[in-house]
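Problem: given the chain below (587 residues), write out its structure.
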Amino acid sequence: MCGIFGAWLNEPLDEDYVGRFTVATQSLSHRGPDDQGCYVERANGLFLGHRRLSIIDLSDAASQPMEIDGNVIAFNGEIYNFLELRLELELNGHQFRTQSDTEVLLRAFNHWGNDAFRRLDGMFSLVIRHDEGLTFATDPFGEKPLFIFRSSQGLYFTSEPTPLVKLLALEFEPTDLQIAEFLNFGFMLNGETGFQGLKAVGPATVLTFKRPNATPCEGRYWAPPLVSETTNEPSAKDVDELHSILLESIKRRLRADVPIGLFLSAGVDSSLIAAICAKDLNHDIQTFTVAFPDGLNEAETAAKIASHLGTHHRTIEVAADPFGGDFPNALTSIYGTANDNLTAISVFQLSMSARPFIKVALSGTGGDELAIGYNKYAFIHKRRHEYKIPPHIARLVASFFEAISMLDKANSIRAFLGGTDAQRVSALKNGLASLKLGKTSTLLDLPPNLTQSKSWLNKMRSFDLEATLPASYISAVDRGSMRTGLEVRCPYLNTALFDFVARFGGSVLIGKGQKYLLRTILGRYIPSEFVSRPKTGFVRPLSNWTKTLEKPLEHRLLDEPFYPNAENHNDGMIALRIAILQSMTAS
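Solution.
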């Protein structure tokens, strides 16, 4: 895993350009502390910069940018099935000079073109220079970030927005729609950043530019399938097959030439990875858990699970917040864009403590999306018949309950059932606090691909997979860990797993209990009391920050000043988003 920075301009590059681009690449050294390289075509206005975090083939021969047969690659990520692809390419006459996955990736592109990307099991964002221009590609789930800025000068690209923001002195000037999206969801949709012209490339995307200012040829090679809306129920044989696919996914993600560990919470997702590593793969994996002194944590239970599985376990006692409790400025610093996911701070602290022992960590990220595990999915299933009520009817029912002074019932109906698809998503994320967001929710409009299903379970899962996962959850893991030069791999983020689970009825799966499939497999390894318990995860408590607010928060799009209830998490998150917008504007 690494960091990339580059530009393709309409004019030749002089020494000043190359110098500034080199400094911008250097600013990503936290993502790649082991080496720096660049490829420059001065007359053609092209600069490819790369910071390396050495994981597979630690030799200098595997450094980047790498050139083979006239094509050049700068690549951030890992290709887990590189050994299988290498064998296939060797059978087709390719001769390799390194043991790296980078060489396999570039030769795969040289051999198959864009069809190579659908063959990959990995996390990646990349740029390849070839005879027809530049091709950019991202992994199926958006695990590895890629930002592109387009202007009359040409195009710029980077693994994190901050180098570009500083280089080009970009101003944070979000539109009203982008502000409304952030206040309601905690991130912006469609890859928007609030810096006009700077966008994150979406998952599973391939972009080819023939010239710096040309409209790119864009395609998508995979999309998460919707779970079936039938009553298809998994059999014992199906569970065995899922178990086998997951085992292979984990096995591939243990390929590295450096020490590997696992971030272990007491939840199902990471516990199952630990169990398969220890019991099936006989991997002497190190496990790490974070413990907070100021809130709920799973350290004690995680230690018991680790003991049962026989892993080498460490509990990281977090004594103090390195950012002094200033969550808005901390998140602004970590992400470089408006993002409310506090997990990045916890992942940063855990990664910083684990980094002396390991260079790669496995994570349970993606398990909730795969196995329909979030509480909101259970909420939707429980109220599935109510979600079929047309919004205008729901609003009439809410008015009735309001008339007889049943305000809680009226507000619940109005929030969860009485609005547009976007407003319902906001309510599922913010609870009744969504009603405090006023007119901002009326600005929202979800992309068509997120609302095509009639099933609200599928709608919400599509929103999480296509929007929340890449923009929020994965970003938190990437920025928090890579700030310390530690790579995180997610075995559940595997297209084979999602394609397999899609054959079963979503309502059937959630009806059997959250994460039914994964819990069934985990029950083969550890005692039932660990399988059935809820998780809390690596999340730093928010209430301590909310209590420090001395006055209400205001924003021009809100109808009135926002008074957060310090004990209400959803209130606290909205307050945090307002404060982040203020911090981004001030920075």
